[in-house]
């Protein structure tokens, strides 16, 4: 089988290679890989700044945004041949820490978790892959063309859960949400916001391309103004920050109405410096009982929430999020950013 491999730590080492077909360990599913999505983390890995190969090896099979079709499922696994599935990314640390011991491996405390396609275990960017049934989530059959959005949707489902839990420390009935960034995470966050009946606002830099209409077709409002102006106008109860851009992150911290919740989901490179009014930021967060929470990754519950959210979304809207499909043999093209890209995916089957 062919697989998309990379040498973590080495720039431009991305290469589709022929690898032996995997054989499922006892109880595992054998899955035909259909599609993998490309995200910022994959770009960091191919850029040589993130990622770890499995111990004792140089190369890692890339890909954590997965979609595949079950080829073989052991009896009693709960899956059957033909099922459409996505694989969970993270595996608990071996100790395990208290969170991992409770299935909350997305909240691992000791950092010794592993992640498929990112940290020490091969990913899903392969024509065949195996997965433990407990780390596979089924998707409805009509989602074949868009099911690769499952992993980013799981990250967003977790972010929303965090907002609800943090808000739940007192009376909390948010009405307006501002999402900063109309990339795949921002747009999926907007989708889940509208599914909850919230008034959704999305801020992005671009005024052309697919993003404005994707936002409007959700019934949400698209903004390209200066972040401060948008915050003044919208006065959001919740901000989901999905750019990782320092100016937006810091504007968000003080950008909510009283008792606001800001959820940071964007991963920025270290070393970015800006000047901020630390006094005002602190003062406002304290005087308004605001909360800021960071959120990454997802556990099984969030994958199931994502499957439910995708199932009830408009499939044609989801299709429009996938703006480019690249065949495995030309995978490098998926990493060249083009102006109208939202989600770029790699087709694994020839
Ligand atoms: C993935 C997460 C992962 C994180 C850090 C993200 O792109 O979606 O699953 O935890 O990168 O490795």
Describe the protein in words.
The chain is of the alpha/beta class and 350 residues long. It has ten helices and 19 strands. It has two domains: 2-139 and 314-347, Medium-chain alcohol dehydrogenases, catalytic domain (Quinone Oxidoreductase, Chain A, domain 1, Alpha-Beta Complex), CATH 3.90.180.10; 154-294, NAD(P)-binding Rossmann-like Domain (Rossmann fold, 3-Layer(aba) Sandwich). The strands form four sheets. Strands 3, 5, 6, 10, 11, 18 and 19 form a seven-stranded mixed beta sheet that branches. A hairpin with an 8-residue loop joins strand 1 (2-6) and strand 2 (15-18). Helix 3 (150-167) crosses helix 4 and helix 3 packs across helix 9. The chain starts with a strand and ends with a strand. The model has no long low-confidence stretch (mean pLDDT 98). Bound molecules: beta-D-glucopyranose (BGC).
């Amino acid at each position: 089988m062919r697989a998309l491999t990379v040498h973590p730590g080495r720039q431009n080492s991305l290469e589709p290679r022929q690898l032996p077909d995997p054989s499922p360990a006892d109880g595992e599913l054998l899955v035909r890989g259909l599609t993998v999505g490309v995200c910022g983390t994959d770009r960091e890995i191919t850029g040589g700044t993130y990622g770890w190969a499995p111990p004792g090896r140089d190369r890692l099979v890339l890909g954590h945004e997965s979609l595949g079709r079950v080829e073989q499922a052991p009896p009693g696994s709960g899956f059957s041949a033909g099922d459409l599935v996505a694989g969970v990314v993270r595996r608990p640390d071996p100790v395990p820490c208290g969170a991992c011991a409770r299935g909350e491996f997305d909240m691992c405390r000791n950092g010794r978790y592993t992640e498929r396609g990112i940290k020490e275990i091969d990913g899903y960017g392969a024509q065949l892959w195996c997965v433990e049934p407990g780390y596979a989530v089924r998707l409805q059959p009509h989602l074949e063309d868009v099911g690769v959005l499952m992993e980013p949707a799981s990250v967003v489902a977790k972010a929303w859960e965090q907002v609800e839990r943090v808000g739940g420390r007192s009376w909390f009935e948010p009405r307006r949400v501002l999402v900063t960034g109309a990339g795949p995470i921002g747009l999926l966050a907007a989708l889940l916001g509208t599914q909850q009946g919230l008034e959704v606002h999305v801020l992005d830099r671009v005024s052309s391309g697919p993003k404005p209409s994707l936002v409007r077709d959700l019934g949400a409002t698209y903004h390209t103004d200066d972040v401060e102006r948008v915050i003044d106008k919208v006065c959001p109860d919740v901000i989901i920050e999905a750019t990782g851009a320092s100016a937006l992150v810091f504007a968000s911290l003080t950008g909510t109405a009283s008792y606001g919740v800001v959820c940071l989901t964007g991963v920025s490179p270290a070393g970015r410096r800006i000047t901020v009014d630390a006094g005002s930021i602190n003062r406002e967060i304290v005087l308004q009982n605001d909360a800021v929470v960071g959120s990454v990754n997802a556990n099984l519950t969030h994958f199931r929430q994502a499957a439910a959210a995708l199932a009830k979304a408009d499939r044609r809207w989801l299709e429009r999020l996938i703006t480019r499909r690249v065949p495995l043999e030309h995978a490098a093209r998926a990493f060249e950013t083009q102006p109208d890209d939202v989600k770029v995916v790699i087709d694994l089957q020839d």
